[in-house]
Amino acid sequence: MTLTPSNRRRSPREPHWQRNERLTSRELAPDIRRWLLDDGSLTGRLIDQQRGVFAVDRLFQGWEVPLPSERRLLDLGQRQLAIVREVVLNQGSHNVVFARSVMPLSSLTGDLGHLRRLQTRPLGAILFSHPNMRRSPFELARIAGDSDYLPREYQQSQAVWARRSRFDMNGRSVMVSEVFLEDFRPWPTVLPVHRTQRGKVSAAIVRPKQ
């Protein structure tokens, strides 16, 4: 389903994003931290699980002013527009991840220009295939199941974990947040990642102001 501007929800309340090292083991259990901080390709992980045909359901894609913390993360001005894309990743009949991406106009140039016309192709597959991709450290959030950060039809019965990071490619940045829905099942161990699939996590990327 693609939402039209007339029924598009506006300005969802932002999750409380935190650097992962600020969360204690009591707040974030080690068995959850293990998969939540896995910096391999999430698309690849979900395909490897073979729980059904992997598919992307695009809910919305259009020009919007990003949320305040997203603007800070991407170094955008208050009124700068970006393409906001919201999708749900599916494994067969299982809705497993809600993802929200923010792509500033200034990033949609050169070999990333085609992202303007992105349909149901997984964005992660494109970012992880870029030879110069760098990924910022994750920020994490515990999101209430009825949070309006989630589209109403994907709100959950209990709180769920989310993460986000910034991808940098030759000076162009894209933010991706991922909310793990109740039907998500983590992989049992940290799996090997092909070198061509793994981006480099850069501690040098400036963190957003809190």
Low-confidence stretches: 1-6, 194-198, 203-210
State the helix count. Answer: 4
State the fourth-level CATH superfamily: Chorismate lyase-like
Which second-level CATH architecture applies?
3-Layer(aba) Sandwich
Q: Measured on Cα atoms, how large is the radius of gyration?
A: 16 Å
Span from first to last CA? 34 Å
**How would you sum up the global shape?**
globular
Strand content: 25-35%
- Any idea how many domains? 1
How many DSSP E strands?
A: 9
Q: Which CATH class? A: Alpha Beta
Helical content class: 10-25%
**What structural class should be given to the helix and strand makeup?**
alpha+beta
CATH topology heading = Chorismate lyase
| SSE arrangement, N to C | EHHEHEEHEEEEE
Average of pLDDT: 86
Q: What kind of sheet is the major sheet? A: 9 strands, mixed
In short:
Substrate binds at residues 85, 123, 178. This protein is α+β, with helices and mostly antiparallel strands. It has a single domain (18-203), classed as Chorismate lyase-like (Chorismate lyase).
Protein architecture, described:
It is built from 4 helices and 9 strands; from the N terminus they run E-H-H-E-H-E-E-H-E-E-E-E-E. Strands 1, 2, 3, 4, 5, 6, 7, 8 and 9 form a 9-stranded mixed sheet that branches. With 210 residues, it is α+β, with helices and mostly antiparallel strands. The protein has one domain (18-203): 3-Layer(aba) Sandwich (Chorismate lyase), CATH 3.40.1410. The model is unreliable at 1-6, 194-198 and 203-210 (pLDDT under 50).
